[in-house]
Amino acid sequence: MSLYNPAMSSFLQDLRFGARTLLKNPGFTAAAVLTLALGIGANTAIFTVTSSVLIKPLPYRDPGRLVFLATQRRGNRGGEAQGAFSLNRYDMLRTRSRSFSGIGVFATDSFNLTGRGEPEQVPIARVSPSFFSVLGVKPQLGRAFTEDEGRPEGKYVVMISDALWRTRFGADPSIVGQTINLDATPYTVIGVLPAGLQFPFIGPADVWTPRYFELTFMTPQHLRLGVSYLQGVARLSPGATLESAASELKVLDQQYNQENPKAPDGGSNISMVAGNLQELTVSDLRTRLLFLSAAVGLLLLIACANVASLLLSRALARRKEIAVRTALGAKRSVIIRQLLTESVLLAIIAGIVGLGLSWAATRALAVYGGTNVPQGFSIAIDWRVLVFMLAISVLTGLIFGLFPALQLSRTEMNSTLRDEGRGSSASHTRVQAKGLLVVGQVAFTLVLLIGAGLLVRSFSRLLKIDPGFDSRNVLTMYIPLPTVKYAKPEQQVLFFDDLLRRISALPGVKSASVSAAVPLSPIRITPMLPEGQPEVPLRQRPFIIIEATSPRYLETMRIPLQSGRAFTDADNAQAPKVLIVNQSFARRFWPNENPVGKHVVLGFSTNAEVVGVAADIRNEGLAQDPQPQVYIPYPQLPWPNMNLFVRTTTDPNGMVSAVRAQVSAIDPDQPVTKVQTVDELMDGARAQPRFTMFLLATFSATALALAIVGLYGVLAYSVAQRRQELGIRMALGATRSDILSLVVRQGMALAVIGIGIGLLAALLLTRLMSSLLYAVGTHDAITFALAPLAFLIIALLASYFPARRATAVPPTEALRST
After folding, report:
1. Residue 340: per-residue pLDDT
2. What is the C-alpha to C-alpha distance for residues 498 and 502, in angstroms, rounded to an integer?
3. How many CB atoms lie within 10 A of CB 82?
4. Residues 406, 644: Cα–Cα separation, whole Å
5. Cα separation of 253 and 325, whole Å?
6. What is the mean pLDDT of residues 411-438?
């Protein structure tokens, strides 16, 4: 049996010939490889992130059967997901649900780790003992939690992350069984989680405890009243589906409301929901990643058109070669196959280079991207990325190689062997073909430019937003008090009162205050019944943002007080309950009335008097309208985890050491975290839109450069082909300005046609960007006017230089060659 395979032999022959052809033209090969590598590398980098986030299964056992459990609230602000549910709901789920073979719940918290070097705050996750078994996760050292450890009388045990084990405990293999101090309480380490294991639906956590029925800042008794603080993951039972689980949850909702008629987490406006764990985990990232994928896809098409144009320019040198091969009997299909083999080989080489660029780009994103890169996912090149790179390289080779191959294979044998006339119809055909490619490049580039322009306009609006407070010269840091050491509210108030007195006395400090939340990020909402509103059950009352602050908070943040008074030291725990409302609250509940002196029922029964009205601030993010909010003196709403704000007369970063020293002077074991200026906090709020804008602007700039190079190339090629014609025109009396105008018109005509097509495409495609824009419409007139205008100016410059070169054709040379 012969092992000879004619098809494979022909392929290898084409491959060797293609490699020799590329090596003979190193300049062309380098230019084409670099151009394609930029497009393939950008696509591979974005696909690496997209694959890691949207495609790669979560690293748990049978992840397709995992669902996320949460609640959805309707009616308060248009029907948004509240997310958390209560202990009572969890008890009902685990005892009555048949759709789930296992349910695990979790809540985030923090502990202060002491006794092992410098005090440090570590993020923790409070989970039910079933949490890891539901996911199918086993520790690399030690064991998982038992059911007994998940009861109030259970032992104080924890599992720690591999990162904490290595950084804080030196990867000590005997850590299992050791005791560590967390919030002044001894906990026994029973296990270490596997390296690299992440839980993106939870967030960062270094310590895991089965005491899910507790929270650092709230008593178990309060939690049993119906406070919503848990979220859950569950595994579908054999035969169960998301649809059947949803139906069962509706029945359980009805039972819960009947059995708990006064619970704040019940009622017809609150319901349990279940969704695919991976889908819900990536839902916030999907739009942004798909948008960037589309952008780099356009960039690759522009690169393909650019290289196809290079191939057409190179066709002149190969016409006689193709004609000779045709004369010797080569079929057109064989020639096309050979030319496509060269194109695919070129693209694969570019793909290998692009893979290197992609690796460098993803590493740079990991190092410099910070929170702009999806958190909780392992972003790495794997077999999916390699398959994608190979597939897109082959596809790219076919895309940019097919059109030139078809053009070149139509070479007319007799005329080519007889005379390669510069003014031949084949040359004009290639000029037209290159012109079509340039039109496509211009159209695609304009779509990217308009997209980038919309993001720039949106970001500029975001920069100009008045947040409602003055962020300049304010230092902030987070101070979480351990509730074991500071169990009583009086102790917590005493600590912060003492700290504010000490810091206010420091040189360079204008004012100091504490608040439970930082600007732009509320942490608590509570049901309220403002005076004059219909008396309704607790769970039907509007949930409003509530923030506990010290007396000088408004002064420190320079939030204007519109009427009434600010809090004073007299507004302590023994004094009558008071609060300050913002303008949005006043407009919503007391339009055209004076809010000062009105009363509001907070939570279950706390009645507080309004003593002031503060100006609105952007309390839910820079891009969100201000929501109703109330401020209450922190002694009247004790909270162990507070944010310190210090307004200084100089650079606030210079006060960090002095402020830390005052905290240590009160309690040497008390850590502080999240040390930053409020300006940096504001900058962080703009980081994600800035990052997206930067990426798209980079892609657009690259595409613009490729498009301009393509336009310049086609005009330069046209001038070279028409050299004799232009010389004759000048010999017959045409002026240099006539020739200049002739070539520039040709370039501008291509640009105008491409811009027209690009505008139509942009009108259709930019509607998909609506979720990424703030205060800018997807058909923003300024952007749609300026982007084409800028392109026309650049196209004019790109056309001018080949046109100027055309005027240098000596008429005598043209007459000699006729």
Report:
1. 83
2. 6
3. 19
4. 70
5. 78
6. 57
Q: How many CB atoms lie within 10 A of CB 189?
A: 22
456 φ/ψ angles, rounded to the nearest 5 degrees: -65, -45
Burial 490-500 (b: 16+ CB within 10 A, else e): eebbebbbebb
β strands within 531-577, DSSP E? 543-549, 561-564
CA 744 to chain centroid: 43
Tokens coding 776: 């800018």
Q: What sign does the CA torsion over 723, 725, 728, 730 have?
A: negative
Q: Is 630:545 a contact under the CB 8 Å cutoff?
A: yes
Top pLDDT among 570 and 360 is at 570
Give CA–CA dist 67/791, Å, rounded.
49
Query: Mind listing the pLDDT tens digit for each residue in 566-613?
Result: 999 999 999 999 999 999 999 999 998 999 999 999 987 789 999 999
Strands 641-648 and 474-480: antiparallel
pLDDT for position 369: 63
Q: Which H/E stretch holds residue 113? A: strand 100-114
* Phi, psi (rounded to 5 degrees) for 649: -90, -15
Rounded Cα distance, 121 and 416, in Å: 79
What's the token pair of residue 391?
Answer: 């597939």
Cα 27 versus chain centre, distance:
39
Among 487, 481, 482, which Cα is nearest to 186's? 482
Strand, helix or coil at 360? Answer: helix
pTM (2 d.p.): 0.78
Q: Return d(Cα 565, Cα 563) in angstroms, integer.
A: 7
The two structure tokens encoding residue 520: 């732009």
User: Does the structure show a pLDDT above 50 at 395?
Assistant: yes
Q: How far apart are CA 329 and CA 323, in angstroms?
A: 10
Write out pLDDT tens, residues 141-164: 999 999 999 999 999 999 999 999
In the beta sheet, which residues pair with residue 525? 545
Q: Say what the pLDDT of residue 76 is.
A: 43
- The residue whose two tokens read 């004094």 is 575
Structure tokens at 281: 């985990």
Supply the pLDDT for residue 623.
Answer: 86
3-state secondary structure labels for all residues of 218-281: ECHHHHHCCCCCEEEEEEECCCCCHHHHHHHHHHHHHHHHHHCCCCCCCCCCEEEEEEEHHHHH
Cα 349 to Cα 23: distance, rounded to the nearest angstrom: 12
Q: Dmax of the chain from CA atoms?
A: 108
